[in-house]
Design goal:
By secondary structure, the protein is an alpha+beta fold. The protein has one domain. The protein is built from eight helices and six strands; from the N terminus they run H-H-E-E-H-H-H-E-E-E-E-H-H-H. The strands form two sheets. A four-stranded antiparallel sheet has the order 1-2-3-4. Helix 6 crosses helix 7. The longest helix has 15 residues.
Length: 146
């Protein structure tokens, strides 16, 4: 396989996003970086006031994590759907599942709350959104053939 097929990403996919299917819910994410210039620009802008503290290693880690999570939600999370049907007969509705099982509106605050409450989910979404391989057109074509 050529280096282009191995490493060239689809810039449209990086911006329009891919769907990460978790079974009972699915999230459309743009790439964290790459052609997603909004992520890079907003991260730069939002961390600028913290830059001196970051360089001096005196930054409040909780504040930095909050800023990065907010930028992630604002620029990487594009959509969120929850299956309100069954596994055999899915009924996908836009929204974020609450802890009590109800469906909350898909909006910034509800997504932030979910990611604050479920840090392992946040970590996984970040990891997946950062994987260039998921945004390669050749890889998606191969997956569609299987």
């Amino acid at each position: 396989m050529s280096m282009y097929k191995q490493f060239k990403t689809d810039t449209d996919l990086e911006k329009q996003g891919i769907v990460l299917d978790y079974g009972t819910f699915r999230v459309r994410v743009a790439r964290m970086g790459g052609s997603n210039k909004k992520f890079v620009a907003q991260l730069e802008q939002r961390t600028k006031p913290l830059r001196r503290a970051i360089q001096a290693d005196t930054v409040d880690r909780t504040k930095l994590i909050d800023v990065v999570r907010e930028v992630f939600v604002d620029t990487v999370i594009l959509d969120w759907e929850t299956n309100v049907g069954t596994e055999k007969s899915p009924d996908w509705k836009q929204g974020v599942e609450a802890e009590d099982g109800s469906l909350l509106e898909f909006n910034r605050e509800n997504v932030l709350d979910a990611l604050r409450n479920l840090p392992d989910l946040y970590d996984d979404l970040q990891e997946q959104a950062g994987k260039a391989a998921l945004f390669r057109a050749a890889a998606l074509e191969d997956e569609a053939k299987n």
